[in-house]
Amino acid sequence: MEQEFLELVRIVSEMQQRMISLEQANQVLVRSNQQLIACMEENQRELEDYQRNIFFEMNASSPDKEGYWYPSIASVEETVAQIVKEGKSLARFGDGEFSTIAGRIRHRFQNQTDDTLRERLIEVLQSKEEHLMIGLADNYGSLECYNEQARREIRRYLSPQVRREHLQLLDSEKLYYNAYVTRPYAMYQDNRTDAPRKRFEALKKIWENRDCIFVEGCYTGLGVGNDLFDHAKSIGRILGPAENAFSSYGQLLEACIKQGKGRLFLLALGPAATVLAYDLARAGCQAVDVGHVDLEYEWFLKGEGHRTAVSGKYNNEAEQDQQLFPIQDEEYQSQIIADLS
Questions:
Q1: Which residues contact 334 (CB under 8 A, 6 or more apart)?
Q2: How confident is the model at residue 62, as a pLDDT?
Q3: What is the pLDDT of residue 40?
Q4: Confidence of residue 208 (pLDDT cuts 50, 70, 90)
Q5: Contact 131, 87 (CB under 8 A)
Q6: Pick from 68, 75, 53, 73: which is nearest to 143 by CA?
Q7: Residue 78 in contact with residue 175, Cβ under 8 Å?
Q8: Which of 202, 210, 218, 287 could form a disulfide with 341 if both were Cys (CB 3.0 to 4.6 A apart)?
Q9: Full-model pTM
Q10: Adjacent-strand bridge partners of 133
Q11: Percent of the chain beyond pLDDT 90?
């Protein structure tokens, strides 16, 4: 009787183990199916994005489709030439600035809606300031020069509604300049060739032998840990908040004006930099919104052909939360002339 009982216990134990194994296998199958479904859904969204955008990519010379048209955007090379040779300033408009105008939040560097900022951005975008170039992301027509990841991101963002919102704000008779002048690496098809190095060398001419004032977020650290700005004559830094910098805009502008007209202002402050470039240009200063140029240079130095984590530097496009600490570099600290962060 005892032997039969022990046999029964053994059978029950084996059945329990089998049930556990089946449950584990079922969980793996469920996760695999969920991943497969998510992948299929993403592929479907990409196909829909492609179908919506392909007309504009293939017909960049066609002026009209249901009221759509193509903004005139100068090349990256011409944009750099205007800054270096003509001493012009640059205010850039990308997805973050247009989203702010539309009352949407797209990036963490401006995670609050702000009616005053919205009105100022429209003022800048539609200004006719002689010494200020308005930069647009060259997304509206052919995307052949960009890699697949960049094309997917542009197509996902530039829906027919968003495209129409942009065109309602732009001037079909105006020549705009290229906002991607400060993104020489990660998005390009040729980013594993010598082309990015040449684009960076051209960019460096902007600040070569110039007395520069960096106006940046407190975790941006333009040039810290790399040689991007080694040929600048001098560097001073005005620090603003890492996010929602427009909240300190009056103080930032005042601190800049105090530096005088002979300096070159390099700005990395999200949408606030766009407005600041405009106000400084009107005050007789040269100001260039350089945006992500330092991160792009870090990615270029790593040479992996795509965006990577950069320790200790703020990246509004990072998907994960970042652990950021005050920059302790001695040279960086010695360059700070105003901390408004």
A1: none
A2: 64
A3: 76
A4: very high
A5: yes
A6: 53
A7: no
A8: 218
A9: 0.85
A10: 90
A11: 66
